[in-house]
Amino acid sequence: MTPEDPALRVLVVEDDKGMRQSLVDLLEAGGWRVMDVPRAERVANALETFEADVILSDVRMPGMSGLDLLRDLTPQSDIPLVLISAHGDIPMAVEAMQSGAYSFVEKPYEPRRLLSILRHAADQNRMRRGNARLRARLLELSGLDRVLIGDTPAVRALRRDILGLAETPAPVLILGETGTGKDLVARALHDIGPLSDRPFVAVNCALLSPEGFAAEMFGTTDGPDGRILQADGGTLFLDEVCACPPDVQARFLRVLEEGAVTPEGGSAPVPVRLRVISATNEDVETAVAEGRFREDLYYRLNTFALHLPPLRDRRDDLHPLLMHFLHQMAQVYEVPPPEITAEDMAALLAHDWPGNVRELRSVAERRLLAARQGAGSIAEAITPGQHPTDLPESLRTAVAALERDMIARAITAHQGRMDDAAEALGIGRRTLNEKIVKLGLDKDALL
Ligand SMILES: Nc1ncnc2c1ncn2[C@@H]1O[C@H](COP(=O)(O)OP(=O)(O)OP(=O)(O)O)[C@@H](O)[C@H]1O
């Protein structure tokens, strides 16, 4: 991260030469770094070399007006715009503010007031940029974006929540269907938080027998420590928490309230400090209503809830996840990751993924196994042994259209860099060129 120039930067847009010069003089005298342009049409160009903290623009100018500039800027830039007008008409001020202007100043302006408004706007913008940079840096340092794959808004929000929660000792309840990544998220919360060098102890409550459960959790006086004590100072992860027997629920709640655990057959409580993460694919409120899960424990565990969406509700993550698994496992199976065709994509999109990401991972694995024999497709990997080798004509046309669309989007997104587009599509550069010819795509027209 490069340290920011302490001087605030303003871009002045004003057609009147005398007025422009007096604004520049005023701002420079106030310690600002200033760039000025006589027309709003020049702003986009100016911003390429001048990182403005705020833009100060006249409203009425020949050609593009200050209001046009505002409409032009807002979709891609969050640089605040302060408008200045000789006409001082209220409707225009109202329209400017409604369209997202930071503020509106009438001419003749009062220099101190103008400077103060600009400073506020610039400070706010710097703070927001600083926060965004900090968040991005944190994400990079945590490595979370290389572990929790996906770029849908839901997954991005999830990564943000994990980064925030990892820093706190608060209990987290992770909810989501089977295979949505609950275990992965629990580990990430531990691994990127301050307890990462302390133990992470996972207990799958559905796998413990009701008879042995208490001894396993609380330990016995003459046996090894229970899981709770093993996790002392670190994280205890209770997976499938609704399967915890009622007597253990009551005792566990006491452990959390008292910060101490009493082993089976013992009478002396042993102090323990835990961060508790729990997970379930059940509807806990139903379990509470049916009396299977204690309400007081539910509230205790549910300080924060993270909801992991099923894969079928974030289909845009299918491709990046598949590529992730193929690349990861290609190393294990020692085969190059197979190319992903439009037929493969169609099969991925048509499937409902009841087993979520775990199911996709198995599909990737089956696909790689078939690739070792130089054969296979994703459709076959999803439902092995059920696929006709030939698609009907109508489906072939639909698939070709899908493929054309995918390729066009990849080329546009990578601004014509064919190696990058090919990589994003999971195919070789040569195959991409062949497909462009076969599908009759005009590459130049896409850019
Ligand atoms: N967003 C993701 N990015 C990368 N891998 C993921 C992602 N989500 C899940 N996985 C992987 O999918 C598999 C299943 O995830 P996980 O075991 O965490 O699911 P779960 O919700 O705990 O399932 P269950 O409820 O059955 O215990 C794991 O191999 C995990 O690493």
Summarize the structure in words.
With about 450 residues, the chain is α/β, with parallel strands linked by helices. The chain is flat, with a radius of gyration of 30 Å. Helix content is about 50%, strand content about 10%. The chain has helices at about 15-30, 45-50, 65-75, 90-100, 110-140, 145, 155-165, 180-190, 210-220, 225-230, 245-260, 285-290, 295-300, 320-335, 340-350, 355-370, 380, 395-415, 420-425, 430-440, and strands at about 10-15, 35, 55-60, 80-85, 105, 170-175, 200-205, 235-240, 260, 270, 275-280, 305. The protein has 3 domains: about 10-135, Response regulator (Rossmann fold, 3-Layer(aba) Sandwich); about 165-310, Rossmann fold; about 315-445, Helicase, Ruva Protein, domain 3 (Orthogonal Bundle). The structure holds adenosine-5'-triphosphate.
How is the topology of this model organized?
Elements: E1 9-13, H1 17-29, E2 33-37, H2 43-49, E3 54-58, H3 66-73, E4 81-85, H4 90-98, E5 103-106, H5 111-142, H6 144-147, H7 153-166, E6 172-175, H8 182-191, E7 200-204, H9 210-218, H10 227-230, E8 235-239, H11 246-258, E9 260-261, E10 270-271, E11 275-280, H12 284-289, H13 295-301, E12 304-307, H14 318-333, H15 342-350, H16 356-372, H17 378-382, H18 393-413, H19 418-425, H20 429-438
Parallel strand pairs: 1-2, 1-3, 3-4, 4-5, 6-11, 6-12, 7-8, 8-11
Antiparallel strand pairs: 9-10
Helix pairs in contact: 7-8, 14-16, 18-19
The protein binds adenosine-5'-triphosphate (ATP).
